[in-house]
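Hey team,

Filing this mostly as a record. A colleague (T.K.) asked me to run one chain through the structure pipeline before their review meeting, and I want the input and output archived in the tracker in case anyone asks later how it was produced. No errors, nothing strange. Just documentation.

Input sequence:
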Amino acid sequence: MISAETIWSDAPTASGSERENIMDSPPCSFSHTSNDLLFSLDGGRSQRSRNYEIVAQSTEEVQDTQNAPAVSMGPYLLESGQTQLLTTISIYSERGESREQMRLLYMNAIALRVWKAMGKNPSVIGAQYRPSRTSLLTFGVPFSE
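Output structure:
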C-alpha cells in the first residue's frame, strides 16, 4: 500500500492540512475521468488551468480532409484576414481507439473558437491542462508553461 507521504513527495505546494483535507474527501464517482480526479485534488488552480479542450472525431469525419486542422485552418485564417492568430493557436492530435473517437484533437481556446467559426461542430469530450504526452503538434505553436 502506498502512503500519503509517497503520493505527495512530488507535490511541494501542498501543505500538511491540504493533504489531510484531500485524503478525507469522499471518493469520486466512476463516471469521472482520471483528469477530473486530478483537477479535484487542486480545486482553484485546476478550474483555470484546463487549457486544452479534447475534441473527438469519428471515422467519417477523419475521412474528410477538411476536418484536419493542418489542412483547413491555415487557408481559413488567410482568407479571413486573421493570420495574427497563427502565433496563438495550438492543436495537438492523437490516434483514438474507436470508430466514434478515431482522432483526438487537443485544442486551446483560440483554436477551438476558430474551428467553430469555420463551421465545424466539434464533439468536445473533455479538457485538460496540457495535451497528452503521446500526442503530436498538428498545427500552430507548441504548448508552453
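Quick notes for T.K.: The first strand starts at residue 52 and ends at 57. Confidence is low (pLDDT under 50) at residues 1-32.
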